[in-house]
Design the sequence.
């Protein structure tokens, strides 16, 4: 009588982690490292000490709160508009066949497939202060300032203005932030 042993081939435990190491290294390099630098800069004051004083100073400024509220307002209104428009358009495309409905469906698929930053970049190139539309209108009618100005806020213009530099950690020398708090 002979006994035979069958050994199962063991899978190395390290192999799945090796496959994950390269994507995690890229993610750490391109996302977590810059994020850690931003967090460090937000927590460091002018003398180089780490604390929450600079962070709270930015959070309490009226300009920052106005920009934050503007961002939330635009996000909520855009979401509501997309829900209404998308629901109506989807019902029309599904239940009411008409010539060109396939084309509209493909255009919608194109917007879904494109990265959102490309759409934002395209809107900026067309409607921005130095975009195609404003460039054409300024050259045709000799305007000094761009007439189309709705990309950055509901009222037009950039709500952050010069204060974006301050939010990044460099306070203006003339004390404008303290006056607007």
Sequence:
């Amino acid at each position: 009588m002979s006994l035979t042993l069958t050994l199962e081939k063991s899978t190395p435990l390290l192999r799945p982690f090796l496959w994950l190491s390269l994507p995690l290294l890229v993610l750490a390099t391109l996302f977590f490292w810059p994020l850690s630098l931003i967090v460090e800069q937000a927590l460091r004051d002018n003398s180089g000490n780490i604390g929450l004083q600079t962070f709270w100073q930015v959070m309490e400024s009226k300009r920052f709160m106005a920009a934050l509220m503007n961002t939330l307002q635009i996000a909520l209104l855009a979401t509501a508009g997309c829900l209404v428009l998308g629901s109506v358009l989807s019902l029309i495309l599904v239940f009411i066949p008409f010539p060109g409905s396939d084309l509209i469906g493909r255009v919608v698929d194109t917007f879904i497939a494109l990265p959102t930053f490309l759409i934002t970049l395209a809107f900026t190139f067309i409607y921005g202060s130095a975009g195609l539309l404003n460039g054409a209108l300024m050259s045709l009618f000799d305007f000094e300032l761009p007439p189309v100005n709705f990309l950055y806020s509901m009222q037009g213009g950039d709500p952050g203005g010069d204060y974006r530099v301050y939010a990044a950690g460099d306070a203006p020398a003339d004390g404008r932030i303290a006056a607007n708090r």
Observations:
- The chain is about 65% helix and 0% strand.
- The chain has a mean pLDDT of 80.
